[in-house]
Amino acid sequence: MAGRVAARAHTNIALIKYWGKRDEALYLPTSTSLSLTLSSLYTDTRVSFDDDAFEDVLLLDGQIQDAASTAKVTRVVNLFRERYGVGSAAPRVRVESHNHVPTAAGLASSSSGFAALATALRALFEERYPDAPRMSDTELSTFARRGSGSATRSIFGGFVEWAYGTGSEDSVAVPVDDAQWDVAMVLVALSTQKKKISSTYGMKHTADTSAFYPLWREVSERDLDDVRAGIRERDIDRVGAAMEANCMKFHATMFAANPPFTYLTSRSLAVIEYIQELRAHEGLSVYYTMDAGPNVKVLCRRSEQQRVHELLEERFPDVTLFDAVAGPAPRTLTEKEWEELYG
Ligand code: PMV
């Protein structure tokens, strides 16, 4: 009988950014990053062995995906085939994925996507090959990493670091804090269009050409220390200030690339300005960060989230807002849950 397993993984937003690979094949980062896993944005993925098929198949929201997207999935599946000692003898895999995140809009759907894929594949391979050594969550994060760097951090809930590490085995996700305190996010989706410059290309171009890039690791580590201290003290203002500082340095590396580029738009800047205004005049603990897209993610107190949401809605009535609190680690879904959701 063909095995079949489904899993759900949540997206994460980086407070300290990952921006560059020191090893492109192994997806080893040039610096340690730190993120918050989010409750309301996630990917559900079901994987099954197809003993008769010749190729892996990928369906996203019911649509069969092209060869390039399927190849990225196959690359990860092959690592599992190797890890479970079955190499190319293992049957092909069918992957069905449903995104509850606007895909590729800088809302980090690749993080939840590859984390859900890796979680489901671990369960599938363990079921089929029970004699192979068990895989810990820490090891699992190295498999998610090989799909997309940011997916490493979605293997745990709350605040999570992705360690620089000395090599492939210890460049892993490390849970830092469950974030079950007065912290939340409001995501301001200014555009749900697919981004023009992929993060893979953007980070490579920046690392290769930016005059500011040689400073990136060092300045990022200082911001990281500050965010860590803020989390330890449960001081959202300290966390938020260091997050903003890191975000602006991250975007500055792109302004200094050759040729220069930016993911920010005039609308991103308008939201930033408004966040600064809310902080100065409304006394709210609100802080912004942006990734490889124009959307702004606002860190705020959970106790002030509703007010922040309302104020943003009033000022920017045509944008979509998503509220989130700290999300959990991935989990497998039962057959019944899957059927109820996707039929
Ligand atoms: O792993 P990728 O390709 O999704 O790259 C993510 C890069 C940023 O989102 C910009 C930063 C981060 O650490 O998530």
UniProtKB/TrEMBL annotation:
Domain Diphosphomevalonate decarboxylase-like N-terminal: 9-173
Family: Belongs to the diphosphomevalonate decarboxylase family.
Name recorded for this polypeptide: diphosphomevalonate decarboxylase
EC top class, as a word: lyase
NCBIfam families: mevDPdecarb
Molecular function as annotated in GO: ATP binding; diphosphomevalonate decarboxylase activity
Gene Ontology terms: biological process: isopentenyl diphosphate biosynthetic process, mevalonate pathway
